[in-house]
Specification:
- This protein is α+β, with helices and mostly antiparallel strands.
- Helices cover 43% and strands 35% of the residues.
- It has 6 helices and 10 strands, in the order βββββββααααβααββ.
- The strands form 4 sheets. It has a 3-stranded antiparallel sheet.
- Helix 5 crosses helix 6.
- The longest helix has 43 residues.
């Protein structure tokens, strides 16, 4: 910045004052320095503001902890500089209130199911109305995390465990039923075909066994013995 001129950086605006009165908002580029002028730089780039986890009571009477993030940028440099000492504090408070109003009608299950998919319009519109008064444009408000009480998390884990255990038992019962059905079919087949039963007996004999045909009562039976 020279004595007679200066350059406003990219994505920055300078609010020019003379004797405490706003004279102009200078955009990016080279400008002549005015006599008795004071310049306040304002960053116009998009920024993120994190909302730390806060307690939000929901319809069930249970309190959940919810964190959020606000994507914003300066839309009116003069209002941003002059309207309040801490413009972002106003946006922060408006976001906290919007979170409470948007989530209060929901149950715990709905909050968990929707999570970051909670309707952004319900959050952004009330925050944007407050932010506009301090020269800020709210581009997006999103829910980052939903933290349930320890008791609710434990109950949810028990439910998932019981459901998984039930599915495992059902699958085991199905496998046992299929095995019994197969055995029953095999037994019926052996009853209907005696020759097949004898062949199966031969196949089941240990290696090296001697198979002896014993004839008695008009029937031929297979008797196995060690060789």
């Amino acid at each position: 910045m020279s004595l007679w001129s200066f350059t406003v950086p990219t994505r920055t605006a300078y609010v020019a004052y003379r004797h405490g009165i706003v004279q102009a908002v200078l955009p990016t580029g080279r400008h002549r320095r005015g006599w008795g002028m004071t310049y306040i730089p304002v960053d116009l780039r998009e920024r993120l503001h994190a909302i730390a986890p806060q307690d939000v009571p929901v319809q069930d009477g249970i309190t959940v902890r919810v964190s959020a993030a606000v994507r914003w940028r300066v839309s009116d440099p003069v209002a941003f500089v002059e309207r309040t000492e801490d413009p972002l504090a106003a946006v922060h408070l408006a976001t906290q209130v919007a979170l409470r109003e948007a989530l209060a009608p929901l149950t715990v299950a709905e909050v968990v199911a929707r999570g970051a998919g909670a309707p952004q319009v319900d959050l952004r519109v009330p925050v944007e109305a407050v932010a506009a008064t301090v020269g800020i444009e709210v581009l997006e408000v999103v829910i980052k995390d939903v933290i349930l009480p320890a008791e609710v998390r434990a109950a949810a884990m028990e439910l998932v465990t019981a459901r998984s255990r039930g599915l495992a038992q059902l699958e085991a019962a199905r496998a046992e039923t299929a095995a019994l059905r197969s055995l029953a079919n095999g037994a019926r087949l052996l009853d209907e075909h005696p020759a097949l039963a004898r062949l199966r007996l031969v196949q089941a004999a240990p290696y090296g066994s001697r198979v002896v045909l014993a004839v008695g009562d008009g029937a031929v039976n297979l008797v196995t013995g060690e060789g």
